[in-house]
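Below is our example:

___
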Amino acid sequence: MKNLVDLTPAALHERRERIFLILAGLFLGTLAMLNILGISRFIKLAQWGEADNAWIFAVAVGVLPYPITFICTDLISEFYGRRRANFVVWVGLLLNLWVVFIMWLGGTLPGFETLDPQTGKLLNPDGSEPVFFKMRDLTFGAVTASMIAYLAAQFCDVYLFHFWKRMTKGKKLWLRNNGSTLVSQLVDTVAVILITHFWAQALPQAPEGRSLALHLSLFIVTGYAFKFAVALIDTIPIYVCVHYLGRYLRIDPTLEHRDDAEKTSVMRESSGSSTA
């Protein structure tokens, strides 16, 4: 890495930790947001046909920011290694549990609602149903589904990313980025849809005359098609980020896969530009 400003080891360490914090924070913040939004609303992206026979391309609003989490873990894997990527995944699981706890606590503590003796539901003083309890029910269903799918998908993503990195000796970034993300998001989509329907029972009901298998398959196909398209599109920003972050962090992601002579040369260049 030539033509770089000299940095002290302390300044370089601070720079690397700052970028890690940004990537981890973006990952965790996005994860919390998508679990709260979850299946609170479905967005209709396209429709073919009319009425009950229509084929609808719809995704849950929580799906929209989800691809960002895979970009973050791929970048963390690329520059900081598998152990730190897995660490962030485990912190994400704890964050899910924290969201569930706050939602549970918020519904347990006394509020200003009154109990309707006819329906057994809590109502606001004006007679309306509290929005919080609707969101809590949806969040419980979404988080339970996402926690199981999340662990399977994220660990799958991290494992496959490093598997293909080893197989290609650090080359073909597009393969490990797309390959790991596309497989892991398929795992995530199938798990989330099936768990959300059979456990949380929170998906929209199938139109009359449509089989349950076809109905769930449509949700899986449309959700995965959206993630598939975004995963292919994010190849360009991944390449841009790896190029500029590699220079900024003074990290060569392919170094571990080079021969000894190349490693020595790169390490000399890096150490020479990192001391004042």
Remarks:
- Residues 9-272 form one domain.
- Strands lie at 42-48, 55-60, 114-115, 122-123.
- The helical segments are 9-37, 66-80, 82-108, 131-167, 173-200, 212-233, 235-249, 260-272.
